Amino acid sequence: MQLPTTIDQLTMPGTLSGTHGFNRANRNACQITADDDLAAIRTWLSEYQDSPQTFRNYRKEAERLLLWAMIERGKPLSDLNRDDFIAYEQFLADPQPAEKWCGPRYPRNSEQWRPFQGPLKPQSQRQALVIIQSLLGYLVEAGYLAANPFALRRRRLPKAKQDDQVIERYLEKDLWEYLYNFVIDQAPSSDRERSHYERSRYLLSLLYLLTPRVSEIANHTMGSFREREGKWWWHVTGKGEKTQRIPVNTAMLEALLRYRQHLKLAPRPQINESTPLILNITGTRGISANMIYRIVKKLAQAAADTLESSDPVKADKLRQASTHWFRHTGLTHQLDSGMDLRFVNKNARHAKMETTSIYLHAEDTDWSEAMETHVISEKNAD
Question: What residue spans of 29-153 are helical by DSSP H?
C-alpha cells in the first residue's frame, strides 16, 4: 500500500485485517458483530451516525490511526501495543514522510486526498489521542479487544500552548491528590475546626467533581440537587442565564450527604430547598464567591507549605492555584481518564470546547454512568 486512502475505500489485506490480532479478546464474549478491525471501527462509528460533526471528527482520527498502523507499522489495529501508541503520538506531531501523509485539503474521493494537512498542534494532538482512547475503550468494553494498550502510557496528554485556549491552569493528578489528602488528613479538635474541616472537604468535592464556576457555587441552593429515576443531577444556571444539568456521581453524592449530616439537615436535599449550596461556619447563611476564593487559596497555601521542603516547584504551583484552576483540573482529569468527549463537553457546559468542538445530546444513563469513573482518591478511609 503506497498511498493512504480513506476508510470508506479501504480494503485490508488478510494479514492486516486484525482477524487474528494478538490483542483480540475471546470471540465468544464479543458483543458486536465484527470479525476484523475495520468492521469493529465502523461499528464504533455507527454510534455517532445521528451526530454528523462528531462522526466526522471520530472517523478522521480512527482513519489516521488505522492507516498509520497498516502502512508505517505493518500491523493491524488489534496488534498495536504501548510502544506503538507512543510512536503514533510522535507521528501526530510530525507526520513523515510528509509527501505521503500531508497535503492541501481535497475531497475524500480525490486521489490527491491526504489524512493530514501538516503536523498537528498540541491542541489537535490532544483531541486525537482522547478520541483514540475512546475508541479503544469502546472496543475493550465490547469484548473485541482484550486490553487497552493506550491506557498503559503514563505520560500526560500534550498540553496546549496558552494561545490555544484549551485547558488553562490546572493541577496534575498527583498534585490534586496531594492537596485533597492534605485536607482530609486534618484532625479537627474543636467544633469550629470541625466546621472548617467538613466545609473544606465538601467544597473541594464540588469544585473537582462538578467543575462549577465559583459564582455558581455562591448563587445556588441545595435544592439545585434533584433526583430523577434513581439518578441525581445538579441543575445549574450559568453563563447567559442558561440552566443545564450535570450528573451527580456516587462520590459527589456521598460528599453532599456527609456535609448535610454535619449541618444536621435531612439526609437528602428537598425539592425547592433554599439552603445555600455552601454555608458559613455557623451554618446560618451562604457565603460569597470572594469568600469561597479565599478559602481555596488558604487551603492551597497550607498544603504548599508542607510540600515546600520536598518539592518547591510543586509547592509554588499550588500557591498559584485558585478556584478556577479546579474547574480546569476536573475537566482535564476527565479527559485524561478516557471519559467520552461528548460527556466532558456537557460537563463543561461550553457551547464549544476548543479541545473537542463537539456538542452532543447523550443518553442520560450512559452519561451518568460515565461520571462514575471520575472520583476522588482518598489516601485514608475514615
Answer: 37-46, 52-71, 82-93, 98-101, 122-141
Which residues are bridge partners to 244 per DSSP?
A: 236
Residue 126, domain extent: 14-164
Q: Counting every residue, how long is the chain?
A: 382
List the CATH number of the domain containing 158: 1.10.150.130
Residue 174 is placed in which grid cell?
498527583
Point out the domain boundary residue: 100, 129, 164: 164
- On whether both 350 and 221 belong to a single domain, the answer is yes
pLDDT in tens, 3-52: 556 777 777 778 899 999 999 999 888 999 999 999 999 999 988 787 77
What is the SS3 assignment for 299? Answer: helix
Pick the last residue of a domain from 113, 145, 164.
Answer: 164
Classify residue 258 as exposed, middle or buried by CB count within 10 Å of its CB (0-12, 13-18, 19+).
middle
pTM score = 0.59
pLDDT the model gives residue 366? 60
Counting DSSP H helices and E strands in the chain, the numbers are 14, 3
* % pLDDT > 70, the chain: 89
pLDDT digits (tens, 9 = 90+) for 204-230: 999 999 999 999 999 999 999 999 988
In which band, very low, low, confident or very high, does the pLDDT at 295 lie, cut at 50, 70 and 90?
Answer: very high
| Cβ–Cβ < 8 Å for 374, 334 | yes
Same domain, 226 and 153: no
Residues 137, 195 within the same domain: no
**What is the four-CA torsion angle of 107, 112, 117, 119, rounded to 10 degrees?**
140
As a whole number of angstroms, the distance between CA 58 and CA 53 comes to: 9
| Spatial CA neighbour of 57 closest among 68, 70, 69, 44 | 44
Which helix (H) or strand (E) segment is 247 a member of? strand 243-247
Q: Per the domain annotation, does 377 fall within a domain?
A: no
**146 domain residue, yes or no:** yes
| 3-class secondary-structure state, position 231 | strand
Query: Would you say 238 and 291 are in contact if contact means Cβ atoms under 8 Å apart?
Result: no
Residue at 3 is within a domain: no
Give every strand in the sheet of 243-247, ordered side by side. 225-228, 231-237, 243-247
Name the domain count of the chain: 2
Query: Whole-angstrom Cα distance, residue 125 to residue 316?
Result: 28
